[in-house]
Amino acid sequence: MVVQALKDQGVDTVFGYPGGAVLPIYDEIFQQNDIRHILVRHEQGAVHAAEGYARATGKVGVALVTSGPGATNAVTGLTDALMDSIPIVVLSGQVPTFMIGSDAFQEADTVGITRPCTKHNWLSKETETLSDTIHQAFHVARSGRPGPVLIDIPKDVQFASAEYTPPQSIDTNRYQPQLKGDIEAITELVEALEKAERPIFYTGGGVINSGPGASQLLRELVDATNIPITSTLMGLGAYPASGKNWLGMLGMHGLYEANMAMHDCDLMINIGARFDDRITGLVSAFSPGSKKAHIDIDPSSINKVIKTDIPIVGDVGHVLEDILKIWKARGRKTNKGAIAKWHEQIKDWRAVDCLKFTQEGKTIKPQYALSRLEALTKDMDRYITTEVGQHQMWAAQYLGFEDPNRWMTSGGLGTMGYGVPASIGVQMAHRDSLVINVAGEASWLMNMQEMGTAVQFRLPVKQFILNNERLGMVRQWQELLHGERYSHSWSEALPDFVKLADAFGCKGIRCDNPDDLDEAIKEMLAYDGPVIFDCLVEKHENCFPMIPSGKPHSEMLLGEASTEGAIEAGGAVLV
Amino acid sequence: MAALKIKKGSTKHSAYNLRPNFSDVQETHTLAVNVDNEPGVLARVIGLFSGRGYNIESLTVAEVDHLGHQSRITIVTKGTPQVIEQIKAQLGRIVPVHEVHDLTVEGPAVERELGLFKVTGDGDKRIEALRLAEIFRANVVDSTLGSFVFEITGAPEKIDAFADLMRPLGLVEVARTGVAALSRGAV
Predict the structure, then answer these.
(1) A112, A140, A311 ranked by CB distance to B16: nearest
(2) Which of B6, B18, B92 lies closest to A303 in CB terms?
(3) Burial level of A363, CB count in 10 A (0-12/13-18/19+)?
(4) Cis bond leading into A366, ω under 30°?
(5) A248 and A230 Cβ atoms separated by less than 8 Å
(6) pLDDT, tens digit, 9 for 90 and up, residues A155-211
(7) DSSP output for A268-330
């Protein structure tokens, strides 16, 4: 019944790990060929892989885990998906209903443990309602602000049989978030847009989640109005990096021009972003002179952090369509002269060239490694995943994304160990595309067991490790905030990544010389199979630009020289 | 989940339309939350309050529609206007939550609580306790030669006042239900 329900929900791939309490479902999987099961090496990997799959396809990702430790191992992935609004369904086995509460072997209160880290969860105690619950779960996961859901299925419920309910006969009226925005508010936004002298679009993951249509509408709106646009880490690719109005990413490690424009704008149009603390910096000094509009499908995002002047609850795609319709009907007006002047100002900021670096000597700079990776792969059918840390920020800065759903990174939760399994999920969805996981060696080691999965299922994922033998971002904060006392932020016993690749049965490449880098990257790209690329980089490189904790956008640090005394005691307590 | 009663074509009654700005004034609000009576729903509501650091001053819950499997949770909470708006929006996000009503904002509401008070003593104190109970229209629901149990219904302030009066007269134990509330008028 479970397998039938998954099929009817259009599922073709399940990431999972068997165990005692899910054996009946695995037995069903064994007896069919429609759903491909990918055996991971750890349940956290299953959930991240499902996330990667979901983000690369726009569909719901599915993971299957056993009771007890299987379910608790899934918790990090669920929380990650909740923070980044990724639709996934996790099915967990549970001890039989008559043993629940008896501290049975591999029993855990899974719905209790996962309640705060799922959008919703169910303990399915009756086989009669199981198919209904599964269909509801898919509906909840993908509707409104997407998110992870979990269904806990006791083993006796899996064994019993009952009549199957197809998805068409499910009543989904109970959960129907509002999609259309309030026309009055949208009109108010259009009026503001027509008059604005220094407008800016600030977009987020909501545009990606709303589907490719929303990105298309966004591009149309941005190009027609000639308003500059910046995006959060989650929203990269919704507007192409090569587009003429693109400012680059904003936020703590965002581009100078993007953050300065956010600070000085007079109209900020937030589309599907949530004023995260990595974006706002010091809230009281966040874009002080601007009128703020906020489009979000989740009413709780609005006015949570920043006071909004024009709130619009609705799906980004629907609202953008209405904005365009109303704006066109009112005669396609913008304040052209002022906006031209605004672009001039932005040009001055851009001239600071905040991402410049000098590659000299025989040590590879991480920025150089990523610029070369970008140059050699940008025209390819490419998907990028990352781990979490400096390399993640450099990847966001130095790689360009032309389309949505091409960039998967753990934003809200900042989960080290996300990238390897996510790259496997992405490669499962796009077997013939190039999938690169840009990693740091420390994050990469957290879920490196999944290389076994990549080898077993012939998934040619490329693991591009920027190896500085440090926890780079931790090291950077210790340098700036803790008097250069590098407490436990380096590893003295790293594996030999090339030998490790051999051990896994894939290809290992090491590069430590900038002159050899291009050839080494080409070798990685040419190899038909998984590759672990150990790129030895400068060990003490810091990630700039940076808005220090507790500072506004206008006080960015641009490089080493500007760091002294930059963060005061008040800022040091922030994360 | 038409939780927040967002009226079409108007932002006036929307979930996010804040009263004044981000003010620092702490307000007490009574929220009525209609939910599906399913396992875990109360844990979801309480978990939201503890997880996000909101206050619960009182909370009552019981099934109100047996056929429709609907329960009503009445929560009295305290916070700045922004926090109150967040609480309502966050409650509205919970999947089995149908409606969130802010009875404090939506107009006058009747708020009632029931309290049980055990008072022990003899002589003048015992007579005085009984006399005060009459004034407060409290009923004696249990009595022995040395004790009374009073039952009192009313607004929380009335029950507070009764407790203050009983304390010097031999109050030994109190049980209170927390507030149940309904809006006044036909709707």
Answers:
(1) A311
(2) B18
(3) middle
(4) no
(5) yes
(6) 999 999 999 999 988 888 788 899 999 999 999 999 999 999 999 999 999 999 999
(7) EEEES----HHHHSSGGGSSTT-EEEEEES-GGGTTSSS--SEEEES-HHHHHHHHHHHHHHT
User: Would you call B89 and A302 a contact, using CB atoms and an 8 Å cutoff?
Assistant: yes
Q: Do A177 and B1 touch (CB under 8 A)?
A: yes
Cβ pair B6, A302 in contact under 8 A: no
For tokens 């038409």, name the residue.
Answer: B2
Q: Which of A120, A177, A313 sits opposite B14 (nearest CB)?
A: A313
Contact A182/B43, CB-based, under 8 Å? no
What CATH class is the domain A366-536?
Answer: alpha beta
User: CATH homologous superfamily of domain A2-169?
Assistant: Thiamin diphosphate (ThDP)-binding fold, Pyr/PP domains (3.40.50.970)
> CB B93 to CB A184 under 8 A?
no
CATH 3.40.50.1220 fits A183-350, yes or no: yes
Residue of B nearest to A173 (CA): B1
Summarised one tens digit per residue, pLDDT across range B139-170 is 999 999 999 999 999 999 999 999 999 999 99
pTM, rounded to two decimals? 0.92
Write out the catalytic residue numbers of A. 43, 105-106, 155, 473
pLDDT range class, residue B24, cuts 50, 70, 90: confident
**Angstroms from A176 CA to nearest CA on chain B:** 6
Q: What tokens appear for A59 in the block?
A: 């569909």
Instruction: Kindly report the number of other CB atoms within 10 A of residue A223's CB atom.
Output: 14
**Predicted-assembly ipTM surpassing the 0.90 threshold:** no
Across the interface, whether the CB atoms of A175 and B95 are under 8 A apart is answered yes
CB pairs under 8 A between A and B: 74
Q: Domain residue spans in chain A?
A: 2-169, 183-350, 366-536
Query: For an interface test with B, which of A139, A143, A303 has the most B Cβ atoms less than 10 Å from its Cβ?
Result: A303
Tokens for A295, please give them.
């489009």
B122: CATH: 3.30.70.1150
Which phi-psi region, left, alpha or beta, contains residue A377 (left: φ > 0; alpha: ψ -120 to 50)? Answer: alpha
- Smallest CA–CA distance from A116 into chain B, residue: B47
Q: What is the pLDDT of residues A276-302, one digit of tens each?
A: 999 998 899 999 999 999 999 999 999
Q: What is the mean pLDDT of chain A?
A: 95
DSSP string for A158-212: HHS--PPPPGGG---TTS----SPPHHHHHHHHHHHHH-SSEEEEE-HHHHHT-H
**CA A51, CA A422: separation in Å to the nearest integer?**
7
Task: Supply the range of the domain harboring residue B77.
Answer: 27-102
Q: Which residues in chain B are closer than 8 Å to A280, comparing Cβ atoms?
A: none
Phi-psi region of A469 (alpha: psi -120 to 50; beta: other; left: phi over 0): left
